[in-house]
């Protein structure tokens, strides 16, 4: 695998301050490599979105970054910690380096501005020297890149279908040639047919443009097909991280296993579906030890007592690039 | 243009309703209007004069309501609102025409300025929650709870006086002849300042508050986050994304609450003896000048309708979703 | 349980409970602008000529993309909308009640579960209120307080919300999504219906909770021999939980048959597209651009639906005929049919 | 504020009447010219009549001479011949006759309702003939102003004419009109010596408060307005110059009883009330110590204007507070007390509802005082503040128990008594359209005396009738008179002197009355 | 009611009901508003009894400033202004509440019906409320009340109530429209509930916040209207004191010019305070309905560098490197 573009180091994200704080993301370490699609999965409330917004510092109040670093590696080898950027630096950094595509495209596009305005104002903000004509040209280019005819430039968001809007968002995300695109459930509101169209297009573009993708969804079967690597979150922590195929074929963490056995498969033999018993943890009253232990079919003594650390499991070689946080799989 | 058409239909209907209501108002009066006029004179008129007044007004109660109604419409279409009692035999339309410009200027300008400033402050307050400007909110709440007229009274008590820059009443210096010269305009502005400030203080608070709340709501919308994520300059995000959207409900709120605002501002005119419709209304009430009251009510309603329509048009321009094609 | 208790469970599994024949629903579109002057009212042809049968003890899945008219079918079956045309037969008898006593009698037998468990329970009422109302409306609350209490406990037990006292006095917001959906199901069961119309009962639920609710539905089917209409857009879940599957496209049923057959050997090009598009973990990193353009274009407008086969503008196998003639159902194999000219045997 | 004032020959007059519309019709008291008073300096009366003065109260003006004959059924005016209209035409007897014809032919203009019959002009004389004696209407006829025939004959509807360009014989002509201020300038060619005032500005202030402020700051130098606590608000601001003078005229305000409602049909009860009403409080608190002057003669005739008319037996009879006497009067006439409560002869507690328009603050105050006073003799009163229309209607139809109201005024106390006691005006309770006698007072003797007075052939008969009327009134007390009607004003002697006052009672100091012209002519710049 | 607060009853917000009461009072604005309102209502009840003088009783202390005998001074008739203020509270509160109740009932009837039912009747009702909304209410009220032969508190309240329901009806209609297609309403229908039961038991309870905020808005409007009417002399009937009557007398006796500030300042302040109390209550409701509006305690945080920054959208503050409060 190629080198890292983004390194998340022991990132903590809270909602609220002091004793009332909800620790929505805890001690997350994650590396995004150049050109890869990193999938982030986990059930609702596990902290996926919080992580994504937290690392870009877009989390609205009462969210705060309680600690950690997010190191961005520039092409020239320089690094910058997003957490230490000033507002102005952040503004310059955003979109030029990391773009975000949100879940609901209708809500991501400003309903009162034309598509063209929304495409060009970001170019203008980062390249004030550009001419309106060149900006418009770029906007047109981006639209055709995502398969929308340029005459849609003058449309307002409400005049486009859901799929088209989502594509506009993707086009907008790519307008400044960012190194990283973060996508938070970009297709859950869409139809499977359109979902496939859009994601197919995105893969194409990635191959051509070479950006990295952090892809968030709770649809594991989609992730497995779509991403290179997958990280599974539970209760605000990463519990397993591995190449997609490894997770699918040989998940180590019982929670990953449970997730995978919650999806009916369309093709192939009928698998047995076991699901995951119990309900997601309450972030305010997290179980001790491994947060998953109350629901874990394989829980044993240490699970309730101690927090398992994420690491390369003993049973695997370090070269395999997978980590897990489970007492069943002691780490090196 | 469906939206526009629907609105137009609505305005036509409302105008009709208001006019019809207006027709029935004097028909609800106990006794007859002339009696009120006589009463008003209070000793300045001998009781023998009554007879002559009946002759003057030529009241004919023996007509069917229907034909009266049609007659009324006919008169309206000719711009004839009847004769004022107080200023007999002046036409009500003439009396109102004299007062209307003042109200339009005072109420119109202050309402718009109040809306603009209030919205701007509300935008800032909502955007910078917790900053000093947000601390304005309780103060403005208190101010907006004060009835317009009382604030006006206090302003008069505190700020006017023989040596004060602010005159205590009237629309312009006595002795000046309304004219488009600087002396007159300056005087009119000087006289309008205090009432205007009163209206501004009272009315602005509402806008600040609703705009602030809308801003807080809108600031949490995804597209605002996206705008931040796009690295747009803060001003652009605040104005182009957050405020632009937060404004929409405020504009339609503006249109709808015009009726309330006008009601409130009329009182300011009363307190400041400003020669506008509000003061005329007050005079009309005091002297039971029903034709005048009717006329004022009609004109106010129609003006509010018109203003509403303008606000609607503004809304249409602001919100592309209402501009849906065919 | 009235009629059903007399029959043996063997024969019961095939007994038709609810039938829809040529069900059609057109919603008028609000007139705009100049149209006000014209006499023609435009219609959203949300559901067109849909026929289906629900059998005792069987789950029938209705799949299709968003906006294809699935919910409308369910609501028509529940008599929540007046229908434009067609017939609904309960135990072979046509029903027309949309209000009043007759509707109540109908709703006793046909109950509906809504897509969103977060929205289908009134936030201001407790679980007890919801269930008590369901029982009371259908006179199943019993004479005494105890009867009612027993009935409530029974209901909660049936949807595996045990112990009942832990849930009975809770407000919806105090329950998890899965629990809420169970309460919604319990409410439907409160009428002791024969038919359950489940409109996307799990699409709003978390992956790990979905399964529990679906398993519960299956369990109910097996224990209570309910006829269940399972509406979803997740065709994979239809494969797993439904005995039969019908596929809708733009207000029409385009294919139907045994679930396994429909999902594994889809006949209609739309079904094929749908199945092709569904994420497939076995095809790891399979998101490369496929050679063939997958179903280009957008779902059709239902106000001016395409003539002939409604899928023809997007269909890779489109023929001249598709553009003009509406394809009828063609039987492909036992119970498996598709409304597509490709299967017109006479043509060949 | 604007205080660039009158030293340069300008007199600033103010009235609290709100913005005006341009209407200079001198006949209509709704017109701006009448409500602000500037009609008085444009149009001139035939005779200047001073109603505050008893006797010797007429002075020739446009008419050099006038003569009544035929027991006040005929009058001959001799018109001056050096008078010119402001457009230069001469004022002739024809103009005078035409003015009276206008009044006769247009009841809408004839707000005094004088019944003119024959009108004839010959030479410089105008002769008017009447059906009945006009003794009681003398003032109205003498005071009539004159309009130019050559202008008014062109008006098709004089009753709704707004006379945009008034032509008068007075010393001033209209210069500019704005809703707020009307400016008049002294004209050339006035028949008398030109007034010292070169320009008059009539400003219509929006309300009493604004008018008071204007007076207090000197922006207005002459006005007629009610000022509560006038010392504090007005005169104290410049005690040397700021003056007010409100002499009474022959009209009154009083508490009218509905004499058809028991127990108020009982004259002893009414007289008892008269004995406890505190007129001092009413004068000082309700009328701010000046506005409607106190009337304390028991006959209700305001003094000094009515002095000559008061019967010898009542000359010094003052209405004074006498609670004990009142109680005695009551208990002596069938009324009883149960504790503090007065019961009428039938045993019912005596109560009264006093009706008043809600916004009339002085009346309300007066009634509050009366209510308190009534408590002293065990009568429970309620002040019912009604809507003005409702109040007017209640009085019109007799649907009230007690109410404050005014009477007409004139050149004799006849108008007062006629308003209160005339049986000719009587209409039964429930019937409206009444022109006075709101109390439904029925006494043939009073009616006869009134008619006697109006038509008496000579002064002796008139005196007799007047004495009779006073006797009936004092005996029956159909209304309790509280205050006199006034004809006064506030003025400042800072820039102009020569105003009428207690020492020099040549005219009532009200800018809207006919006498305003007289005052204007006499004002001189302060040295 | 110049504040057009758009009440946004999002389903998520409407969900929390149980904790409602406590949470509502926990809101500092609501708590202050509630306390102030409580005092006003208490005064409305006991005011006339505890007032030291008969508010109409005259004395010889004419236009005197505040003193030990007359805490807020006297009028031109020597009446005790403090007593007038106390006694006047009842009328103000009564008219406000009564008009509020009338308008709220009307707006409920009209708003909810036109929202829930469809068809011409509903459209007609909606058009009616729009008409009433646009017609300026205060001039209409002034004209109607000045025409009425006799005005008591009740008639005033009636007139205000009958003319000021439109705003509420509109808001309620919009809310009902959005609730009407909610699943739980449909579900209730599918269960077999009757229409009226759905309206009363399923829809109305979810409108409580809107109804309450609307009620308060109308009360504010009614109070100011009543006072305005009294002030311009339309309603000074009977011996019924209200704050507007005090101001009317102050104005007609030119208290300002007389320097009798005690005559009009307390009444005006009382109005402003009552208005503030009601406005605070309304904020409480707004914030309660739309949690986003709630002030979230601390708005400033200390960052790594020891700077204090404001929490705001778009720039999440970074507290430090490592969670400090972690054991
Ligand atoms: N403003 C907030 N205050 C307190 N807790 C919050 C807030 N916002 C989110 N949370 C909590 O933080 C946790 C993580 O939320 P997050 O949105 O990141 O989950 P997610 O994994 O993205 O879920 P989903 O799949 O539903 O989008 C959740 O348990 C949520 O309840
Ligand atoms: N009340 C209505 N008035 C007008 N059109 C309607 C109405 N209800 C549904 N429709 C339209 O009918 C069509 C079918 O809607 P329906 O809700 O049945 O689709 P669906 O298959 O259930 O979709 P989803 O998967 O999104 O729930 C859609 O185009 C929708 O816009
Ligand atoms: Mg999320
Ligand atoms: Mg649906
Ligand atoms: Ni000035």
TrEMBL record, chain A:
Signal peptide interval: none
Domain spans labelled ABC transporter: 8-260
Superkingdom, taxonomy of origin: Bacteria
SUPFAM superfamilies recorded: P-loop containing nucleoside triphosphate hydrolases
Keywords carried by this UniProt record: ATP-binding, Nucleotide-binding, Transport
CDD domains: ABC_NikE_OppD_transporters
InterPro entries referenced in this protein's UniProt entry, alphabetically: AAA+_ATPase, ABC_transporter-like_ATP-bd, ABC_transporter-like_CS, Oligopep_ABC_C, P-loop_NTPase
GO molecular function: ATP binding
UniProt xrefs under NCBIfam families: oligo_HPY
The protein, known as: Peptide/nickel transport system ATP-binding protein
TrEMBL record, chain B:
Topology relative to the membrane: Multi-pass membrane protein
UniProt key word Nucleotide-binding: no
Record localization: Cell membrane; Membrane
Segments forming domain ABC transmembrane type-1: 100-311
Short name of one Pfam family: BPD_transp_1
Superkingdom, taxonomy of origin: Bacteria
Keywords linked to the UniProt accession: Membrane, Transmembrane, Transmembrane helix, Transport
Segments forming a coiled coil: none
Residues that span the membrane, as ranges: 7-25, 99-124, 136-159, 188-209, 254-275, 295-318
Database matches in InterPro entries: MetI-like (IPR000515), MetI-like_sf (IPR035906)
Protein family per UniProt: Belongs to the binding-protein-dependent transport system permease family.
Protein name as it appears in the record: Peptide/nickel transport system permease protein
Organism: Kibdelosporangium banguiense
TrEMBL record, chain C:
SUPFAM superfamilies assigned: P-loop containing nucleoside triphosphate hydrolases
Signal peptide: none
Domain ABC transporter: 31-275
Xref: Pfam families: ABC_tran, oligo_HPY
Keywords, in A-Z order: ATP-binding, Nucleotide-binding, Transport
Region (Disordered): 274-307
Keyword Transmembrane helix (UniProt): no
GO molecular function: ATP binding
NCBIfam families named in the record: oligo_HPY
UniProt name for this protein: Peptide/nickel transport system ATP-binding protein
Biological source species: Kibdelosporangium banguiense
Organism classification: Bacteria, Bacillati, Actinomycetota, Actinomycetes, Pseudonocardiales
Automatic annotation (TrEMBL), chain E:
CDD domains to which the protein is assigned, alphabetical: TM_PBP2
SUPFAM superfamilies assigned to the protein according to its UniProt record, in alphabetical order: MetI-like
Pfam families linked: BPD_transp_1, OppC_N
Domain ABC transmembrane type-1 stretches: 93-282
Topological category with respect to the lipid bilayer: Multi-pass membrane protein
Primary subcellular site in the record, as a coarse category: membrane
Record field: transmembrane: 30-50, 92-113, 125-148, 154-172, 207-234, 261-285
Keywords tagged on the record: Cell membrane, Membrane, Transmembrane, Transmembrane helix, Transport
Subcellular location per the Swiss-Prot or TrEMBL entry: Cell membrane
Source organism superkingdom: Bacteria
Family the entry assigns: Belongs to the binding-protein-dependent transport system permease family.
Entry protein name: Peptide/nickel transport system permease protein
């Amino acid at each position: 695998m190629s080198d890292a573009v983004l390194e998340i180091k022991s990132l903590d994200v809270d909602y609220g301050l002091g004793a009332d704080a909800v620790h929505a993301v805890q001690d997350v370490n994650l590396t995004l490599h150049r050109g890869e699609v990193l999938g982030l999965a986990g059930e609702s409330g596990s902290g996926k979105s919080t992580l994504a917004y937290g690392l870009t510092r877009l989390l609205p109040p009462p969210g705060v970054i309680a600690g950690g670093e997010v190191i961005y590696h520039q092409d020239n080898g320089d690094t910058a910690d997003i957490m230490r950027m000033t507002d102005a630096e952040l503004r310059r950094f955003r979109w030029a380096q990391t773009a975000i595509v949100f879940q609901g495209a209708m809500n991501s596009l400003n309903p009162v501005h034309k598509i063209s305005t929304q495409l060009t104002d970001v170019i203008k903000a980062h390249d004030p020297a550009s001419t309106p004509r060149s900006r418009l040209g770029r906007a047109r280019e981006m639209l055709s890149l995502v398969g929308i005819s340029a005459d849609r430039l003058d449309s307002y968001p409400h005049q486009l279908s859901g799929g088209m809007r989502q594509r506009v968002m993707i086009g907008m995300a790519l307008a400044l040639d960012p190194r990283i695109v973060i996508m938070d459930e970009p297709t859950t509101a869409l139809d499977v047919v359109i979902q496939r169209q859009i994601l197919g297009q995105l893969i194409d573009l990635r191959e051509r443009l070479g950006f990295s993708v952090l892809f968030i969804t709770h649809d594991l079967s989609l992730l497995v097909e779509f991403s290179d690597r997958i990280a599974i979150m539970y209760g605000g922590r990463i519990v397993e991280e591995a190449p997609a195929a490894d997770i699918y074929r040989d998940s180590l963490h019982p929670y990953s296993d449970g997730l995978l056995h919650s999806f009916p498969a369309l093709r192939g033999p009928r698998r047995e579906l076991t699901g995951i018993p119990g309900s997601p943890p309450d972030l305010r009253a997290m179980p001790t030890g491994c947060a998953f232990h109350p629901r874990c079919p394989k829980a044993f003594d240490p699970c309730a007592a101690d927090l398992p650390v994420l690491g390369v499991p003993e049973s695997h070689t370090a070269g395999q690039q997978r980590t897990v946080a489970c007492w069943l799989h002691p780490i090196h | 243009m469906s939206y526009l058409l629907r609105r137009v239909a609505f305005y036509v209907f409302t105008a009709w309703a208001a006019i019809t209501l207006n027709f029935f108002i004097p028909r609800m009066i106990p006794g007859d209007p002339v009696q009120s006029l006589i009463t008003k004179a209070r000793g300045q008129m001998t009781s023998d004069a009554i007879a002559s007044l009946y002759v003057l007004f030529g009241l004919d109660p023996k007509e069917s309501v229907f034909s009266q109604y049609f007659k009324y419409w006919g008169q309206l279409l000719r711009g004839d609102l009847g004769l004022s009692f107080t200023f007999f035999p002046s036409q009500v339309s003439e009396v109102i025409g004299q007062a209307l410009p003042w109200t339009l200027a005072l109420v119109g300008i202050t309402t718009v300025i109040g809306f603009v400033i209030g919205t701007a402050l509300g935008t800032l307050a909502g955007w910078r929650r917790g900053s000093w400007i947000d601390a304005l909110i309780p103060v403005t709440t208190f101010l907006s709870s004060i009835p317009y007229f009382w604030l006006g009274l206090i302003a008069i008590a505190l700020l006017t006086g023989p040596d004060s820059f602010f005159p205590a009443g009237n629309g312009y210096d006595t002795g000046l002849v309304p004219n488009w010269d600087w002396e007159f305009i300056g005087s009119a502005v000087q006289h309008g300042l205090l009432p205007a400030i009163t209206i501004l203080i009272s009315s602005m608070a509402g806008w600040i508050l609703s705009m602030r709340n809308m801003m807080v709501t809108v600031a949490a919308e995804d597209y605002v986050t996206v705008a931040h994520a796009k690295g747009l300059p803060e001003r652009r995000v605040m104005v182009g994304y957050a405020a632009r959207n937060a404004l929409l409900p405020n504009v339609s709120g503006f249109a709808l609450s015009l009726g309330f605002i006008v009601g409130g501002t009329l009182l300011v005119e009363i307190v400041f003896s400003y020669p506008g419709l509000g003061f005329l209304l007050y005079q009309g009430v005091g002297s039971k000048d029903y034709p005048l009251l009717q006329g004022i009510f009609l004109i106010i309603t129609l003006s509010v309708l018109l203003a509403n329509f303008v606000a609607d048009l503004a809304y249409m321009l602001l919100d592309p979703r209402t501009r849906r094609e065919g | 349980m009235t009629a059903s208790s007399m029959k043996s469970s063997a024969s019961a599994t095939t007994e038709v409970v609810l039938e829809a024949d040529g069900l059609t629903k057109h919603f008028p579109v609000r007139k705009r602008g100049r149209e006000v002057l014209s006499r023609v009212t435009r219609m959203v042809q949300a559901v067109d000529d849909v026929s289906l049968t629900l059998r005792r003890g069987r789950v029938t899945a209705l799949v299709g993309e968003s906006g294809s008219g699935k919910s409308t079918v369910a609501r028509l079956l529940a008599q929540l909308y007046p229908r434009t045309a067609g017939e609904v037969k309960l135990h072979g008898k046509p029903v027309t009640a949309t209000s009043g006593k007759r509707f109540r009698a109908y709703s006793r037998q046909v109950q509906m579960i809504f897509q969103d468990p977060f929205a289908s329970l009134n936030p201001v009422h407790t679980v007890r209120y919801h269930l008590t109302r369901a029982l009371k409306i259908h006179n199943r609350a019993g004479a005494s307080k105890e009867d009612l209490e027993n009935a409530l406990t029974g209901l909660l037990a049936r949807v595996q919300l045990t112990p009942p006292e832990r849930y009975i006095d809770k407000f919806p917001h105090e329950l998890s999504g899965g629990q809420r959906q169970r309460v919604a199901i319990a409410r439907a069961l409160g009428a002791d219906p024969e038919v359950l119309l489940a409109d996307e009962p799990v699409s709003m639920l978390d992956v790990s909770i979905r399964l529990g609710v679906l398993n519960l539905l299956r369990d109910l089917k097996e224990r209570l021999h309910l006829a269940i209409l399972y509406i979803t857009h997740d065709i994979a879940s239809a494969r797993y939980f439904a005995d039969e599957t019908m596929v809708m496209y733009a207000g029409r049923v385009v294919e139907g048959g045994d679930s396994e057959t429909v999902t594994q050997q889809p006949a209609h090009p739309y079904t094929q597209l749908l199945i092709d598009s569904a994420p497939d973990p076995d095809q790891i990193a399979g998101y490369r651009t496929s050679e063939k353009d997958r179903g280009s274009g957008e779902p059709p407008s239902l106000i001016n639906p395409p003539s002939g086969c409604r899928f023809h503008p997007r269909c890779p196998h489109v023929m001249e005929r598709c553009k003009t003639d509406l394809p009828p159902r063609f039987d492909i194999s036992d119970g498996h049919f598709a409304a597509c000219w490709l299967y017109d045997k006479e043509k060949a | 504020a604007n205080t660039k004032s009158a030293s340069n020959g300008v007199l600033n007059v103010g009235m609290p009447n709100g913005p005006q519309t341009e209407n200079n019709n001198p006949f209509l008291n709704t017109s701006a010219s009448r409500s602000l008073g500037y009609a008085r300096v444009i149009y001139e009366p035939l005779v200047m009549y001073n109603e505050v003065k008893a006797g010797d109260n007429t002075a020739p003006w446009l008419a050099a001479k006038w003569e009544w004959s035929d027991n006040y059924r005929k009058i001959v005016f001799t018109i001056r011949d050096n008078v010119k209209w402001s457009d230069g035409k001469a004022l002739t007897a024809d103009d005078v006759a035409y003015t009276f014809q206008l009044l006769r032919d247009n009841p809408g203009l004839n707000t005094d309702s004088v019944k003119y019959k024959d009108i004839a002009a010959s030479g410089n004389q105008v002769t008017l003939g009447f059906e009945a004696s006009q003794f009681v209407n003398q003032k109205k006829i003498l005071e009539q102003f004159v309009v130019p025939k050559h202008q008014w004959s062109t008006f098709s509807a004089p009753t709704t004419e707004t006379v945009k360009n008034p032509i008068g014989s007075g010393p001033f002509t209209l210069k500019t009109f704005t809703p707020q201020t009307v400016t008049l300038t002294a004209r050339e060619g006035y028949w008398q010596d030109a007034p010292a005032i070169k320009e008059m500005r009539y400003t219509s202030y929006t309300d009493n408060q604004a008018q008071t402020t204007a007076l207090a700051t000197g922006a207005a130098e002459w006005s007629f307005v009610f000022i509560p606590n006038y010392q504090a608000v007005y005169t104290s601001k410049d005690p040397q110059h700021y003056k007010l003078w409100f002499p009474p005229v022959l009209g009154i305000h009083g508490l009218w009883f509905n004499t058809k409602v028991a127990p108020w049909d009982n004259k002893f009860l009414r007289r008892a009330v008269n004995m406890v009403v505190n007129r001092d409080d009413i004068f000082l608190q309700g009328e701010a110590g000046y506005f409607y002057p106190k009337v304390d003669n028991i006959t209700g005739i305001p003094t000094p204007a009515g002095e000559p008319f008061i019967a010898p037996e009542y000359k010094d009879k003052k209405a004074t507070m006498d609670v004990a006497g009142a109680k005695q009067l009551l208990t002596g006439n069938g009324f009883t007390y149960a504790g503090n409560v007065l019961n009428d002869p039938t045993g019912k507690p005596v109560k009264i509802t006093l009706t008043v328009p809600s916004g009339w603050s002085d009346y309300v105050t007066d009634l509050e005082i009366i209510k308190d006073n009534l408590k002293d003799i065990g009568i429970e009163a309620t002040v019912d503040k009604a809507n003005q229309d409702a109040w007017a209607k209640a009085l019109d139809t007799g649907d009230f128990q007690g109410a404050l109201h005014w009477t007409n005024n004139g050149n004799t106390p006849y108008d007062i008594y006629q308003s209160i006691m005339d049986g000719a005006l009587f209409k039964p309770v429930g019937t409206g359209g009444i022109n006075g006698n709101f109390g439904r007072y029925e006494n043939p003797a009073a009616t006869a005396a009134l008619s006697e007075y109006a038509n008496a052939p000579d002064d002796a008969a008139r005196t007799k009738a007047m004495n009779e009327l006073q006797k009936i009134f004092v005996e029956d007390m159909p209304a309790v008179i509280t205050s006199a009607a006034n004809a006064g004003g506030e003025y400042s002697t800072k820039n102009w002197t020569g105003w009428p006052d207690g020492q020099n009672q040549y005219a009532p100091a009200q800018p809207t009355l006919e006498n305003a012209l007289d005052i204007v002519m006499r004002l001189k710049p302060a040295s | 009611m110049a504040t057009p607060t758009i009440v946004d009853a999002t389903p998520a917000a409407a969900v929390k009901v149980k904790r409602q009461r406590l949470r509502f009072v926990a809101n500092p604005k609501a708590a202050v508003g509630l306390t102030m309102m409580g005092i006003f209502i208490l005064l409305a009840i006991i005011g006339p009894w505890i007032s030291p003088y008969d508010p109409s009783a005259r004395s010889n202390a004419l236009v005197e400033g505040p003193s030990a005998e007359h805490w807020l001074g006297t009028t031109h008739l020597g009446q005790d202004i403090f007593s007038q203020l106390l006694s006047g509270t009842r009328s103000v509160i009564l008219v406000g509440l009564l008009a509020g109740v009338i308008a709220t009932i009307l707006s409920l009837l009209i708003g909810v019906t036109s929202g829930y039912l469809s068809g011409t009747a509903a459209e007609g009702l909606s058009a009616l409320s729009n008409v009433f909304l646009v017609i300026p209410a205060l001039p209409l009220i002034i004209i109607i009340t000045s025409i009425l032969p006799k005005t008591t508190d009740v008639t005033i309240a009636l007139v205000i109530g009958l003319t000021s329901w439109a705003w509420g009806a509109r808001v309620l209609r919009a809310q009902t429209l959005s609730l009407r297609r909610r699943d739980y309403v449909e579900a209730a229908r599918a269960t077999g509930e009757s229409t009226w039961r759905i309206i009363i038991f399923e829809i109305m309870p979810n409108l409580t916040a809107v109804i309450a905020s609307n009620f308060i808005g109308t009360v504010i409007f009614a109070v100011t209207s009543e006072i305005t009417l009294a002030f311009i002399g339309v309603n000074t009937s009977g011996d019924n004191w209200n704050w507007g009557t005090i101001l009317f007398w102050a104005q007609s006796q030119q208290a300002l010019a007389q320097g009798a500030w005690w005559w009009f300042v307390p009444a005006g302040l009382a109005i402003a305070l009552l208005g503030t109390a009601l406005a605070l209550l309304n904020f409480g409701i707004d914030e309660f309905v739309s949690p986003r509006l709630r002030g979230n305690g601390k708005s400033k945080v200390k960052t790594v560098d020891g700077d204090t920054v404001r929490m705001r959208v778009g720039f999440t503050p970074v507290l430090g490197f490592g969670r400090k409060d972690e054991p």
